[in-house]
From TrEMBL:
Belongs to the glycosyl hydrolase 18 family. Chitinase class V subfamily. It comes from the Eukaryota. This is GH18 domain-containing protein. CDD domains: GH18_plant_chitinase_class_V. GO terms for cellular component: extracellular region. The lineage of its organism: Eukaryota, Viridiplantae, Streptophyta, Embryophyta, Tracheophyta. Residues 1-24 form the signal peptide. Gene3D superfamilies: 3.10.50.10, Glycosidases. Residues 27-377 form the GH18 domain. GO terms for molecular function: chitin binding; chitinase activity. It comes from Coffea canephora.
Length: 377
């Protein structure tokens, strides 16, 4: 009985907190930055963004505290101050985890109230000490029903803690977000804790990319971040629909857009469409190419052809046996328009250092009905 009463009180508290922090959320035009992204903080054109994510803080598996490595301490401490020189209104968030982080450490931390408290308290302290306006969780990915349940507890306790901290300090509440799978179930198996996501996070960043890569294995070319897929396979639009069907409102969803692509090696140079036979990556690093490098490839390669495919909503280019799927200006325009038309909160880019002199960032900026608009969450 005592545990039931405790749960009811926590639920009521979170409902009140939800009303307090979700009175209205500015539309999101965001991007991620990290120290090795190829761009200095001072060179970021922050006027093109409403929010910037600084990646990544680490999780200490022994103490369950959030930490910043010594090599990142300086840049992270100056991040907010520097990007606000060009855009005083831009909000910054400290992102924790990332694709190369230890998922086991996150699962262990989230499994116990004491370790969750260590994580939460240290994250708040670190965000305030480094002048961030919010915190972003990038746990890729919970791998069981119990881990998803523990994630829900973490999010609810995190929200309660930031509300208490704001009340005690007199400062605005920290923004809380999470980078999540493009669909509401990881690998189609493990359902995110929908009620906790809805009530405790300001929004979620849908990682609507990396659906395909040359090493998975791949026998044909694919657009790794297609907005649509007539075969019914993974796509940005199917992920958005899935999250909404699961119960998360559109105004909690921010669509992820990649500023990079993948290069496949064609089996035959004269067969170069989407789903053309391929036998792995063209080039190192599994064929990953930044947008700026793709533009250089197109400009400097004789006979290079660029194609926009409106069925999938993606771009690709090819020359000889090299085929690259990526997002270009027309793809960005269509995706941002789709997000607006379907009532999403906004979009984010991974990552801004891969852009070509902010060309893609400006393309998103051109569609500015997101800007200065309040969406009731």
């Amino acid at each position: 009985m005592a545990s039931t009463i405790k749960f009811i009180l926590l639920s009521l508290t979170l409902c009140v907190l939800h009303l307090n922090f979700c009175h209205g959320q500015n539309a999101v035009k965001a991007g991620y930055w990290f120290p090795d992204s190829g761009i200095e903080i001072s060179d970021i054109d922050s006027t093109l963004f409403t929010h910037l994510f600084c990646a990544f803080a680490d999780l200490d598996s022994q103490s369950n505290k959030v930490t910043i490595s010594s090599s990142n301490a300086g840049p992270f401490s100056q991040f907010t101050k520097t990007v606000q020189l060009k855009n005083p209104s831009v909000k910054t968030l400290l992102s924790i985890g990332g694709g190369s982080s230890n998922r086991t450490a996150f699962a262990s931390m989230a499994s116990q109230p004491t370790s969750r408290k260590s994580f939460i308290n240290s994250s708040i302290k670190l965000a305030r000490a480094n002048s961030f306006h919010g915190l972003d969780l990038d746990w890729e990915y919970p791998q069981s029903a119990s881990e998803m349940k523990n994630l829900g507890s973490l999010l609810d306790e995190w929200r309660a803690a930031v509300a208490t901290e704001a009340k005690n300090s007199g400062k605005p509440q920290l923004i809380l977000t999470a980078a999540v799978s493009f669909a509401s179930k990881v690998d189609g198996l493990y359902q995110y804790p929908i009620p906790s996501v809805s009530r405790s996070l300001d929004w979620i960043n849908l990682m609507a990319y990396d659906f395909y890569a040359p090493d998975r294995p791949s026998t044909s070319t694919r657009c790794h971040a297609a907005l649509k897929d007539p075969s019914g396979q993974a796509s940005g639009s199917s992920g958005i629909a899935d999250w909404e069907n699961a119960g998360v409102g559109a105004k909690k969803l921010v669509l992820g857009i990649p500023f990079y692509g993948y290069a496949w090696r064609l089996v035959k140079a004269n067969n170069h469409g989407i789903l053309a036979p391929a036998n792995g990556a063209a080039g190192p690093d599994n064929g990953v190419k930044r947008y700026q490098d793709i533009r250089t490839f197109v400009a400097q390669t004789p006979g290079a052809v660029v194609v926009y495919n409106s069925t999938y909503v993606c771009n690709y280019c090819y020359a000889g046996t090299t085929w690259i799927g990526y997002d270009d200006n027309q793809t960005i325009s269509t995706k941002v328009s789709y997000a607006k038309q379907n009532g999403l909160l906004g979009y984010f880019a991974w990552h801004i250092g891969a852009d070509n002199n902010f060309a893609l960032s400006r393309q998103g900026q051109l569609l500015t009905s997101f800007q200065d608009k309040q969406f009731p969450v």
